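Dock pyridoxal-5'-phosphate; give full complex structure.
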Amino acid sequence: MRIYAEPLPNFNDIFKELSLQLFHQKEKAPEFSFRGTLYGYARKAMLDVANNISAGKDREIWFPAYICDELIEIFRRHWGGALRFYDIKDDLTPNWDSIDLKVSTKDVMSIFVLVHYFGFPNSVKEAKEFCKLNKMHIIEDGAHVMPSFEGELKVIGDAVVFSLRKIFPLPNGALLITAVNGGKNKGPKVEKKIPWEWIIRVVAKRIFKWVPTTFYGLRPLKKESLSGYRKSEIYERGISWLSLKLLKKLMQESGKIFQIRQNNYRILQSFLAKQGIEPVFNLEEKKICPYAFPLRSTKRDKIIEILRRQGIGAQFWPTLPVEVLGSNSYPTARKIQSELVILPIHQDLDFKEMSLITKALRRF
Ligand SMILES: Cc1ncc(COP(=O)(O)O)c(C=O)c1O
């Protein structure tokens, strides 16, 4: 059996929507009642909002050094200002001392990106104070956060972006909420093409779920490289019509998904507590929907390899930006990168699968 890193979609829903689209009259995209603008990818939403904030001005944007290169790549290509990075502390909060505003020239428009890693709110109060003092705008990166589709979403700065495809099994999908008008100024850009690549991938995953695990686990671990993320324009695309349809249904299940993710996180946390291992984030009784379970170990690669060999989709954080890898100014981000193991806790997993993960971890 295989435990994937992400949840698989409901195949009946996919094939129903697909046949409707292919053989019957094309249906209109569903309407949503929540505030915000839907996108294909969070990185494009972030780029658009950053460009809106600072249109026509000299500008710079501060990202944490602990961020994936694929997010930075779109800024390298389409952001007219300076790209800057700050280090983080051992608990993944911003290291405020590493934000050297002296490098900023006068009259430059500065944007601060605050990442809520793995769905846990990150230093909201401090970020507000710091940015107020230094006249910086704030964009919250809630790519790992499950948005609430009811009521108002709090935006601490200018905007928050969510990557819906990370929590829900969707071909793509992201949500932008801005402080001014919720971002609902125009309908989403909808990609009409059928996302065949995604459909084939998830169908294959469904089949391979039952293939003996060693085959899957023998794939070598991909190492970080200084060459950066592959240059593809796919992330310019809007949300696909299939994502819109599936999202409409998934929203009704979001309460259940929230609960399962919390329960699964707690199972891992209490198991590791018995082994004397502190979690990176303590869930306690907090009302948080975790994205995954991060674990720190100096034996990162060994743990991931052994878990994968047993069919468990443990992962490491993707490649850090080339600017970070090529510099000595971000020691903590690089240390965390070398130690972090990401374990799945998503909605497809129940007590049985979580027990398999804890059993596999017993060896360490
Ligand atoms: C922290 C963080 N922010 C933003 C993104 C980009 O999200 P998307 O893939 O929806 O563009 C990712 C992952 O890809 C991420 O991990």
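Observed: The chain is about 35% helix and 15% strand.
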